[in-house]
Input
Amino acid sequence: MRGYELCLIFHPETPDGDITGLLNSISDLITRQKGSVLKHEKWGKKSFKYPIKKQTKGSYCFLYFMAEPPVLREIDRMVRYNETVLRYTTTALGKHFKPEQFAHADHITHEPSDDTSGTDTHEVAKQPAEETTDA
Amino acid sequence: MVTKRKNQKKKTFYSKRKICRFCANKEQTISYKDYSTLRHFVSERGKIIPRRISGNCAKHQREITRAIKRARVMAIMPFTVSGA
Output
């Protein structure tokens, strides 16, 4: 089980409902695969430093989760063909990451699944196996 | 010639070695989302500042570089700034 961070950039005109809908379905997928969502974060609309798909603004969302590596491929499949997502990237949280640092997170969307107790002592892999994907 | 060369050697200027700010302050973390920290390590043009100028240690310079490159992909930082 490793810690990951998913960053999503949504089209500026995406309704809030669609954003939370996608975030919930990703969280569902993670929990179904015995992972756990630690925290989610919304930055709201932020202007880009350069245009992406002819847009100058976008809504940034972040999802921190623990999961097995194959789950990333399924998330990828879910997000890649979603037209509201302008760009996304998944990064492995480094070796300094501990799941406890999200213990008092404000925005927990899901109850951590049973196997989080096992991950408390589990350090994330030494080399952050990086998976960076461009939409 | 020999004397000239000697004179040149004398002129070599040593500046005080800078301390890596991330080594000095262990609590400061490097993240690609943290624009306010990363912006100190790029030039006006958006180019990454070398270690000899920024004073970072090798380890933290690597982390900074990685963070800046990730931030560029997510449009948090610019690839280039034209007309700067």
